Amino acid sequence: MTQAQPLRVAFAGTPEFARVALEAIHAAGFPVVAVLTQPDRPAGRGMQLQASPVKQFALDAGLGLVLQPRSLRRQGKYPEEAGAAVDALAATAPDVMVVAAYGLILPAEVLTLPRYGCLNIHASLLPRWRGAAPIHRAIEAGDAETGITLMQMDEGLDTGAMLSREAVPIGPLDTTGTLHDTLAALGGRMIVAALQQLAAGQPLAATPQPEAGVTYAEKIAKDEAPLDLRRPATALAGQVRAFNPFPGATVQVGDTVIKCWQALPLAASTPLPHPPGTVLAADASGVIIACGEGSALQVTELQKPGGRRQPAQQFLQGQPLPPGTRCLVPA
What we know:
Elements (H helix, E strand, L loop, with lengths): L8 E5 L2 H12 L4 E5 L4 E3 L4 E3 L2 H8 L5 E2 L11 H13 L4 E5 L7 H4 L6 E5 L7 E2 L2 H7 L4 E8 L8 E9 L6 H24 L16 E2 L15 H10 L6 E5 L2 E12 L11 E5 L2 E5 L4 E9 L6 E2 H7 L13
Parallel strand pairs: 1-2, 1-6, 2-5, 6-7, 8-11
Antiparallel strand pairs: 3-4, 7-9, 9-10, 12-13, 13-16, 14-15, 15-16, 16-17
Helix pairs in contact: 1-2, 1-6, 5-7
């Protein structure tokens, strides 16, 4: 009797979210025959070239072939680079490719290269929040839950058939950072289960995504950081949590831009007599700022330029914000 050959896995991903999945696949004993990740980028104060978390893990784990093309399209901007990478990937004869936050578009040639195709780990309950920043946008929008969807990739933007979905509640104190870690671990568990199913000769059931309920999670831009204090505090508190740890929501007092890392909405029993952007109180419990619709935002963790993140009590010792201070509000 011939023993079944192990499932040969190629992996494509770049940030920490993807590294967690790669580590789970490796720990489960699947041979990872190729790793694709973004080229090294300048980072840190010295702007030295740094490997992605996925590349660093692959090197530390001795996973062998690591490919870092700037494109995978033979007809694109870097045709020779792309062709060499695709040919090298094909030579490893992967049975399946797992993709998680890779950052490059996979052409049809790559999508159809493994016999089981490409499986994507996506951090939302598709079809809600297709696109680049599903965790941020779910928190910002006030969603009650999110989750992980495993998807059979096609040439569209997160439009492929769903293989499995698992929901995760979004808690009132969840930030993008905390939810990222929860979803990354869940994605690792789910992809390992899917690979084990394939290795056992059991096909993965695919369900087309419904046409209703599609939303797009646009990439987070730094110019979204300022809080529009004319909005209700509930929405602003969601923005603060969504932009933690990147890019950090901000308020501006004079020429000083202050990052707000933790905040709670406060509802006033009667309309506030102060216009949005007015500091109502500032003490050890937080900086309370008047917002739209008679609400107020209590900011409990702040950071001034060049400083560290600090609880309100410590922050106010170096940056007093007495009642009546005005924060910049758009005209």
